[in-house]
Design brief:
Elements: E1 3-11, E2 14-23, E3 26-31, H1 38-46, E4 51-58, E5 61-65, E6 70-71, E7 79-82, H2 94-104, H3 109-122, H4 127-130, H5 139-151, E8 157-161, H6 169-180, E9 186-190, H7 194-200, E10 203-208, E11 211-216, H8 218-223, H9 228-234, E12 237-250, E13 255-270, E14 276-278, E15 288-300, E16 303-309, E17 314-319, H10 320-325, E18 333-338, E19 344-346
Parallel strand pairs: 3-9, 3-10, 7-8, 8-9
Antiparallel strand pairs: 1-2, 1-4, 4-5, 5-6, 10-11, 12-13, 13-19, 14-18, 15-16, 15-18, 16-17
Helix pairs in contact: 2-3, 2-5, 3-5
Length: 347
């Protein structure tokens, strides 16, 4: 089953053209700068915006095809959506918000509430909050309710727009796991968080100024990002590890020193330009240093992106001149180092 889209959609003063976009099963991350068209793409698949021309199909069945007079309304599509601003029903308690879609599909009140309770537990909302209306909940709590509500009817396609933006760091790992285990065959993840892409995405779609400029696996999108914004975003490094104090130990045994204390399973992120490369072990106070092997070098103008493998597989960005001076080429051994202050720890 796939979601296929080609055609044009428009908002006031803005037109988006999609030549052909196919969203396969699994998690597809949709990324791009603000205003690139990410939310508009999600709204069109959900049936909240219409195509001007073209065709949108879900599992081979047309959901929006203006030339043929076909438009399946949002409530009749097998699609769930989590909005940035939650869109919860203000007059309903949290548990009844989650049960709403189940009740609408014919599930009796008792079973709908039972299934809603189970989902609210999975998203980490305490039972006292279940009985509160949205106005009494924090932004993070409302985000959890919105995600549970979208998951409850078990849609074939789940669209989540910045799903973890309002959630505290302690809850992000739980919600990422829930998205990764979603019964939805397709999860369209609209995000500005490189950890979401690294941990969840099977495919990446890059939007820029209302056009699809890159698509493919995370590795393919990183190699050919399609625009400067995406090159910077996809150049971010994400490493999983276990934190204890200011030390994070990765799965390979590499210990990274970070600036702030934390504990438990975490991800360490840092930009490619934060990775310094050396011909020999760096002297001085660099505590995060390891030997690596150059896998690939991508030169672009005066910059070069260097892909390294070793105890930490990372991307570095250096000047073209530095790459030449260090004789960087596939198979070359190099030393990489990082300052603790360049590392960000997220759950």
């Amino acid at each position: 089953m796939t979601v296929e889209l080609h055609g044009e959609l428009a908002r006031p003063g803005w037109t988006m053209r999609v030549e052909r976009l196919e969203i396969s099963e699994g998690v597809t991350a949709v990324i791009g700068a603000n205003g690139a068209g990410k939310t508009s793409l999600g709204r069109t698949v959900a049936g909240l915006d219409r195509l001007l021309r073209g065709r949108l199909s879900i599992a081979g069945v047309a959901a929006d095809e203006p030339e043929a007079g076909v438009f399946v309304p949002a409530e009749s599509r097998p699609v769930g959506m989590v909005f940035q601003d939650y869109r919860l029903f203000g007059h309903l308690k949290a548990i009844d918000n989650v049960a709403f879609g189940l009740r609408r599909s014919g599930v009796d009140r008792r079973n709908a509430r039972s299934r809603a309770s189970a989902l609210l537990e999975r998203v980490g909302l305490d039972q006292r909050a279940w009985q509160q209306r949205p106005a009494a909940l924090s932004g993070g709590q409302r985000q959890r309710v919105a995600l549970a509500r979208a998951l409850a009817p078990e849609p074939d396609v789940l669209i989540v727009d910045e799903p973890l933006a309002a959630v505290d760091s302690s809850g992000r790992g739980r919600l990422r796991a829930l998205l990764g285990e979603s019964p939805a065959q397709h999860v369209v993840l609209i995000t500005h968080d490189p950890v979401d892409v690294a941990v969840l995405a099977r495919a990446v779609v890059v939007l820029d100024a209302g056009a699809v400029v890159s698509r493919g696996s995370p590795a393919e999108a990183t190699a050919a990002p399609g625009c400067e914004w995406a090159a910077s975003f996809l150049g971010a490094n994400v490493i999983a590890g276990h934190a204890q104090g200011t030390a994070v130990t990765t799965g390979t045994g590499l210990v990274l020193t970070v600036a702030e204390e934390s504990s438990g399973d975490v991800h360490v992120t840092f930009p490619a330009h934060a990775v310094a490369l050396h011909g020999s072990r760096p002297a001085g106070s660099a505590r995060n240093a390891w030997r690596a092997v150059v896998q690939r070098v991508d030169a672009d103008g005066e910059r070069a992106r260097v892909h390294l493998v070793g105890p930490a597989d990372v991307r570095a960005e250096v000047t073209r001149r530095s790459a030449e001076e260090l004789s960087l080429r596939p198979g070359a051994e190099i030393w990489a180092s990082l300052k603790a202050t360049e590392l960000t720890v997220v759950s």
